Amino acid sequence: MSEDQYTKEQLEFLEIFEIAARYDCLFLLDFHCFDLFDHDQTSLLSDGERSQLAAAARYDIYAEAIQKGFLPKSSPFGGVHEQQRFC
C-alpha cells in the first residue's frame, strides 16, 4: 500500500511504531497506552486514539531511539523536521 491510502492519523502512528520497533522502544508505546487508556493493547485503539498515543509517546520514543543510534530526518533546508523536537 502507498502512503496516500492511509489517513494522517494512521501515518502518524505508523511512523512512531516503526521507530519504536526498529530501536527497541515498543515498551514506551505500551507505557503511554496504559497511561492514556488503562490498557496496553494498541490493536484495540481507534485511529484517533492511536494518533493521540503517537503524540503522547513521540518525545520519549525519539529520545530513546536517538540514544540507540536513530538519526532524525532533516528538512530540505538542513533543519530538523517540523514535528520533531529536542531538548
Automatic annotation (TrEMBL):
Give the domain of life: Bacteria
Q: Know the name of this protein?
A: Acetolactate synthase III large subunit
